[in-house]
């Protein structure tokens, strides 16, 4: 292991890997050593495109197979953005090769897949983490403080979240997220992972007692054997008395918000997944008041804006760079943090329950 630097390999040339090339470059304790694809030419093209946008100080090598990258002794950790249907095999192989693993989401096709990944990483004493960037934003600490102050929100009663974007018909016919072989959970896997995660996070990872789901619209590309969810709604109920709902869609314009409401007020975050471009990340806490004075019925707005100085879009203090910095810090320290695999498995279990419910008429399913 290079002193003070986590040496990364990227397993796949998926589009999201371009973003994370930049994130690793700005992490401060990581460096991309090699990129693997099914052909060295494709890997080299990816490297050339990334280098033109975000130049790095050292040459990154193109590798013509995933096996060859995992066999290298100069790589400590791998970032795996392969399609979900392929991830389990390569996460397990990476762990067996002694590589620490950062994997895109949804982590697996089902919880059994994720458990296999976690078991393989634990056996090899390597770190496992899912690539949920917002978890590494400084904003999360401030939201937690507001949720826990007993005044701003009080006791949480209801959480509502939406993550959506409107995809063109051509996208549906070409993208892997419309393939039941590669991404069987469709928008639930791609977008629902985030809405489920923010709900669980808000409740300190209390698991729901029951989950209900409904596929509102399904579609598939021409080579897919079955439809996958293009629009999905889910409902969660918790033993603590909290209820939560989420909505995910490839058919509605960009929205990525969460509202956490309680007995005294609420927290509203309008860009919890991908912060709006700028030099700060913010959220609002509302404690509105309904006042009656004779014939005057007044809803008084009481709104507090909270902001954190944090740039978006992969800069050094962004959530993306923070994610890779945190991961590399664990690798370099020799410590393993079981929190990350545990919450990945919890998220997958809730996702599985929502999809199972949807395939069975919306009946309640225990995760």
User: Looking at the structure, what is the overall shape?
Assistant: globular
Strand order of the largest sheet: 8-9-10-7-11-12-13-16
Estimate the helix proportion, in percent: 25-40%
Distance between the termini: 40 Å
Structural class: alpha/beta
Mean pLDDT: 96
In CATH, the homologous superfamily of the largest domain goes by the name: Dihydrodipicolinate Reductase, domain 2
Number of helices: 11
Note the topology.
Blueprint: E1 6-11, H1 15-25, E2 30-36, H2 40-53, E3 61-63, H3 66-70, E4 77-80, H4 84-96, E5 100-103, H5 111-124, E6 128-130, H6 138-148, E7 156-166, H7 169-174, H8 186-190, H9 192-202, E8 210-219, E9 228-237, E10 243-249, E11 251-262, E12 266-269, E13 280-286, E14 289-293, E15 296-300, E16 303-309, H10 319-333, H11 339-358
Parallel strand pairs: 1-2, 1-4, 2-3, 4-5, 5-6, 7-10
Antiparallel strand pairs: 7-11, 8-9, 9-10, 11-12, 12-13, 13-16, 14-15
Name some characteristics of this structure:
367 residues; Rossmann fold; Dihydrodipicolinate Reductase, domain 2; 2 domains; 8-stranded mixed sheet; 11 helices
